[in-house]
Each structure stands twice: as structure tokens, then as C-alpha cells.
Design brief:
Elements lengths: L1 H13 L4 H4 L1 H31 L35
């Protein structure tokens, strides 16, 4: 029985698990890779945003004044025009 315990103790010490110590370099390389990818993605998004915002946008003609668009049955408390509409005076 004692020899079986000694053999099992010897086997346990001979096969040491090196999972966490050997993966450290891989994790550091992987983290550095994703950090570079993140910075490249941020730069690409910033460039695309600047490009899209620098382009002009089309200004369309004013729509025809249809009579059914601004039906007012009651006066607003702030006056005859809408609060955020342009005044046509």
C-alpha cells in the first residue's frame, strides 16, 4: 500500500500542469493584436465619418403650399405660427 502511495505521488509530481504559465506569452500577443485592431478600427471609423460629414447634402425645393397641411382650429398659446416653424411675416 505504501508503495502504491509513493508511486502515485511520484506520478503526480512528474506530470506538472503548465497551462497558465505557458499561455502568458500567447495572451499578451493576442491582447496586443486586438489592441492594434481596435485602434485601426477607430481610425477607419473616424476617417469615414469625416468623409461623410464633409460632403454636402442636397437642398430640396420648398414643397407647394397645400391647403390641408397646416390646419389650425385653435390658436397656439405662443401665437399663430408653430413653435419651430419659420415665420412668414
Amino acid at each position: 500500500m505504501a508503495s502504491a502511495l509513493i508511486k502515485s505521488a511520484f506520478r503526480a509530481s512528474a506530470f506538472k500542469r503548465n497551462f497558465s504559465s505557458s499561455a502568458h506569452n500567447d495572451e499578451a500577443r493576442e491582447a496586443a493584436k486586438w489592441e492594434k485592431i481596435t485602434y485601426a478600427g477607430i481610425a477607419a471609423c473616424a476617417i469615414l465619418t469625416i468623409f461623410n460629414l464633409s460632403k454636402g447634402h442636397p437642398h430640396y425645393e420648398e414643397p407647394p403650399p397645400y391647403p390641408y397641411l397646416h390646419i389650425r382650429n385653435k390658436e397656439f398659446p405662443w401665437g399663430p405660427d408653430g413653435l419651430f416653424e419659420r415665420k412668414h411675416h
